[in-house]
Amino acid sequence: MVKWVYTFGDGRAEGARDLRDLLGGKGANLAEMANLGLPVPPGFTITTEVCTFFYENGKSYPPELGSEVEAALDYIGGLTGRVFGDPENPLLVSVRSGARASMPGMMDTVLNIGLNDVTVEALAKRSGDERFAYDSYRRFIQMYCDVVLGVDHHHFEEMLEHYKEIKGLTLDTELAAEDWKRLIIAFKAKVLEARGEPFPQAPREQLWGAIGAVFGSWQNPRAITYRRLHDIPANWGTAVTVQAMVFGNMGETSATGVAFTRNPATGAKELFGEFLLNAQGEDVVAGIRTPQNITEAARLAAGSDKASLETTLPGVFAEFVRTANLLEKHYRDMQDMEFTVENGKLWMLQTRNGKRTTKAALRIAVDMTQDGLISRDEAIARIDPASLEQLLHPAIDPYAERNVVATGLPASPGAASGAIVFSADEAEQLKSAGHKVILVRIETSPEDIHGMHAAEGILTTRGGMTSHAAVVARGMGKACVSGAGGIRIDYAKGVMTASGVAFNKGDILTIDGTTGQVIEGSVKMLQPELSGEFATLMQWADGVRRMGVRANAETPQDARVARKFGAEGIGLCRTEHMFFEGDRIIAVREMILADDEAGRRSALAKLLPIQRGDFIELFEIMFGLPVTIRLLDPPLHEFLPHSQAEIDEVAQSMGVSSEKLSRRAAALREVNPMLGFRGSRIAIAYPEIIEMQARAIFEAAVAVKKITGELVQPEVMAPLIIAKAEFDLIKARVDATAKAVAIETGVVIPYTVGAMIETPRASLRAGEIAETAEFFSFGTNDLTQTCMALSRDDAGSFLGRYVARGVFAADPFVTIDQEGVGELVEIGVLRSRKTRPDIKLGICGEHGGDPASIAFCEKLGLSYVSCSPFRVPIARLAAAQAALHRKPESQA
Ligand code: ADP
Ligand code: MG
Ligand code: MG
Questions:
Q1: 472 CA from centroid of ligand 3 (Å)
Q2: Which of 456-470, 548-562, 776-790 has the lowest average pLDDT?
C-alpha cells in the first residue's frame, strides 16, 4: 500500500530530511526539526506522489487520501487538544506548498483555515482576545480569496484603507475587534458579489479547497515557466503541508520573524534577521510595518530605535539562538529560518539552506571548514564556479544611484565608465590622451579590436550574446552591453540618443555588463580582488585539481591579469590580435597585398621588431611559465583595407598605385573566408610570414634570457591543421629558424612545436600528426564550427531556438557538445596518445572557462584548460570540482 500522508510533531515524525523527494523541501525539513525535538507545530505532509496521481487521473485524488487526511487531523488534534471544525474548541491549520526545489510561482500559503462565523467566536473566547480572533478571520478571508477563490486582494486592501481613512487610523494594529467585525461583513459581501456564492463556511470545504489550489498551482503558467527556466521536471510534483496554527498576532508577547544563521550578504558569523511583534505570517517580508532587528548588535549597527528581540523577549531570544546553532550544526550549512512566537513561546516553522551572495558563500565555506564543520573538499564543492564571475569584474556599488537610460543584453559582465567614442580609432586616441572611454557602435567587427582594447567597455545597439562584440569582450574580460536596441547612433553627427536624451562624443556614460543597463554619467565602482576567503578557497582548490589552468592572452595587460588570477601559463596567444594595433595594420596590409615574396619580406622586416617587442614584454610577464603562441590564423580577408582612404594609405606606404592595390585587394576577397585562405594555409602559401613570427619568438626568448636569466618555454602552435604533411612543412620552417637564431646568438632556447586541432580531419588523423607534433591544443570554437557546419558569428539568430526546442541541451559554443564535438576530441586524445603516450593535451577557446566543459576535459584526462584571463579562477575551481568528482573517496 502506498502511504500518501506523513505526520510530524511532538519530538518525532514519520518522515525525515532524506525524504525530500516525497515530502518536498519544506515538509522534509519540518519532519527533521520535529525529529530533533525542536518546537514545531504538529502537522502532516501530503506527498508529491499525490500530485503526480492528481495529474495522471483527471485531477482526482487517490481513494485512500480522504481517510488518511482525517486520521492525520485527529493526530494533530490529539497533540493540540483541539478538533478541526469543532464549534467550541476549533483546531486551525495552515496549508503550505513545497516542492523538492524551492519554487516561487507556486501557490502562496493559506493561514487560519477552519475559521468561520462560529469558530471565530470560540477563538475569541478561548484566547480571551476578541481583536486577535477577528484579525485572524479577516486575514483568512483575504488570503483564501486571493489564493484559492481568485478574488483579487486589492479589493480588500482598498476597503481596509478606506475604512482606516474614515476612522483616522494609520496602522492595522490600531483597529479594534469591532472594526474588524465590520470589515469582515463588508469582505463577505464582496465575495458574494464577485463569485455569486458566499464565502465557504465549512472547515473541510476550506481545507480541501486550499489543498486543491496547491496541486492546481503546480501547472499554473508562472510555475511552468519557472520550471522551464530552472530545469525542474514537471513530474516531480509538489507536496502539501497542513500544519496546526500558532499565532504571532496574539499581542505584545507574540511575534513572527525570519532569520539567517549567518549574514547572507557578507557571510559574517552573526545571527541576522528581523521580526515584528503582534503580527502573522509574512508581515515582516510584506513591509506593512518596519521590522525590528533580532540582535541588539544589529539594532545598534542599523541605528534603529525599535527594540530588538534580544531585549524585548530575552528568553525567546536565548532559545532561538540555541535553535539556530543547533540547526546549523545539524545541516552543516547556513540556515534560513522562519519562526513565530505565541504568547512568549517559540515555534519553528521552516528551515532550509539559505541563499547567499558569492562573497558570503566563500566566507561561510572557509569559516565552516576552519571550524571543523565541513571538510575542505566539501567547501570546494559548495561554491558554484560560475558565481565567481560576480567577484572578478568591477561592479557598480549596490548603494549607488543609477540613472538608467537604456537596457540591452548583459553580454560581458562587469561595469565600466568612460567618455563616449563612436569609432575604434577615436577610442585609441582618447585613451592615449589619458581618458577612459566607452566604445559605442551599432555593431563591431575584427577591425575594431584595437578600439575594444583601448576601451573600458563596449556598447552595441545590435547583436546578441554571441555577437562579435559580446564574444571578444568576454575574452578580454571587458564590460559589454550588446543589442541595446533603444539607442540610436548617428555616426556622422557623433551623437547617440537614449530615452530622448542626446549624448555627444566625450560625454560620460556607464555600462553594466552584468545587468545590461546603460547609465548616464559615472557611478561609484568596487574593484575585483582575489584575497581573503576567495584566495584561501582557491588555494584549496589548487590542492586537489589535476589539470593545469592557463589563459588565452596576448596583450601585456591580459597577461598580467591572468597571472594575478593564478594562470599557470598562456595556452593561446593569438598573434594576429597584435597586428591590429596602431599603425601595424598598414605593414600587415602591405605584407598581404604584396604580389611577390620580395614585397612580403620588406613588409615583414617592418613587422619583425614590433612582434619581437611584443613577445619580449609577454615573456617577461610570464617568466618561468609556458607560453603557447599560435602562428597567424585568421582569414587574410579580415585584414584587407575597405575604404578608399585605407587603400590609399597602404598604396603610399608600398609605393604602388591605388588602382593596382585595389585590384589586388579585390582578388583576395573571398566568398567564404571562414573556409578560405586562413590558418596553416597562410603558412604554406607564404612561409616567410611564419619564419618572421618564429624569429620574433626565438629572438625575444633570447633577449629575455639575457636580461633576466629566466628561461621562457615557447610552444609554437600551427593553427587549423588538416594534414600531417602540412604540419611537417611548418615545423621544418620553425625548426630551421630556431637553429638559425641559436647560431646567431649563441643561446639555445628549448621549445616545442604542436598543432591546434580544430578540424574533424585533424582529430581523425591525430595519431599520425602526433608522430611529429609535440603537443595538441583542441580549439573547440572552430572544432564546433567545423564539426557542425555552423558559423559562430552567424548562428545567434537561430541557435536559441535549437536550445529552446531541445535539439541541443545548451548552446554548443558555450558548453561543449559532448556527444558530437566531444567525440572528435576524444578520438584525437586516444589516437594521439597511442602514438605519443605523454603528449601534452590542452583545450583553448570559450569552452576552457565553462565548468561543464571543464568536467568533460577532466574525464578525458587533458593536461590543461585555457580560458580568458577573467575566467581563470572559475576554471581553477571547476577543475578542482571535476577532480573531486572523479574520485569521490578523496574526502579530507
Ligand atoms: P513560503 O514558502 O512562501 O515561505 P510558508 O509556507 O513558509 O510560505 O508560509 C509563509 C509564512 O506563513 C511562514 O513563514 C509563517 O510565518 C506563516 N505560517 C505558515 N504556517 C504557519 C502556521 N502553522 N502557524 C503560523 N504561521 C504559519
Ligand atoms: Mg516560508
Ligand atoms: Mg581557430
A1: 14
A2: 456-470
* pLDDT > 90? residue 728: yes
**What was the pLDDT predicted at 864?**
98
- Which grid coordinates are listed for 156? 480588500
**What is the H or E stretch that residue 293 is in?**
strand 292-293
The fourth-level CATH superfamily of domain 549-635+670-891 is: Phosphoenolpyruvate-binding domains (3.20.20.60)
- 872 or 231: which leads in pLDDT: 872
- For the segment 309-313, the average pLDDT, to the nearest whole number, is 97
Ligand 1 pocket, 111 CB below 6 A? Answer: yes
Fill in the DSSP letter of residue 383: S
SS3 330: helix
Residue 44 to residue 66: CA distance in whole angstroms: 13
Is position 330 annotated as part of the catalytic site? Answer: no
Q: For residue range 183-200, what is the model confidence (pLDDT) as tens digits?
A: 999 999 999 999 999 999
Q: What percent of the chain stands above pLDDT 90?
A: 73
Q: Of the listed 155, 453, 468, 847, which one is catalytic?
A: 468
For the chain, give the percent of residues with pLDDT over 70.
98
Q: Is 338 in the pocket of ligand 1 (CB under 6 A)?
A: yes
C-alpha cell at 722: 588538416
Task: Please tell me whether the overall predicted TM-score, pTM, comes out greater than 0.70 for this model.
Answer: yes
Cα end-to-end distance, the chain, whole Å: 43
For residue 844, indicate whether it is catalytic: yes
Confidence band, pLDDT 50/70/90 cuts, at residue 284: confident
Q: Is the dihedral of CA 160, 166, 171, 177 positive or negative?
A: negative
pLDDT for position 873: 97
Provide the 8-state DSSP code for 249.
-
Quick one: pLDDT band at residue 889, thresholds 50, 70, 90? very low
| Of 714, 722, 813, 717, nearest in space to 756 by CA | 717
**What 3-state class would DSSP assign to 185?**
helix
- At residue 892, the pLDDT reads 35
* Weakest-pLDDT range from 107-111, 210-214, 742-746: 107-111
> What burial class does residue 246 get, using C-beta atoms within 10 Å of its C-beta: 0-12 exposed, 13-18 middle, 19+ buried?
buried
C-alpha–C-alpha distance, residues 599 and 654, integer Å: 8
Give the domain 5-244 fold.
Answer: Dna Ligase; domain 1 (3.30.1490)
SS3 at position 409: strand
Residue nearest to atom 27 of ligand 1 (CA): 281
Q: In the chain, where are the structural domains located?
A: 5-244, 255-356, 393-526, 549-635+670-891
Query: Where would I find the beta strands (DSSP E) of 735-857?
Result: 752-757, 775-779, 840-844
Residue nearest to atom 13 of ligand 1 (CA): 281
Per residue in 35-48, pLDDT (tens digit) is 999 999 999 999 99
Report residue 240: phi and psi, to 5°: -125, 125
CA-CA distance, 450 to 116, in Å (whole number)?
73
Identify the sign of the CA torsion 248, 249, 255, 256. positive
CA-closest residue to ligand 1 atom 20: 94
What CA–CA distance (Å, rounded) separates 415 from 389? 12
CATH of 255-356, one of 3.40.50.300, 3.30.1360.70, 3.30.470.20, 3.20.20.140: 3.30.470.20
Instruction: Specify the CATH number of the domain 393-526.
Output: 3.50.30.10
113 in contact with ligand 1, CB cutoff 6 A: no
Order of strands across the sheet that contains 5-9: 12-13, 5-9, 43-46, 238-244, 93-99, 110-113
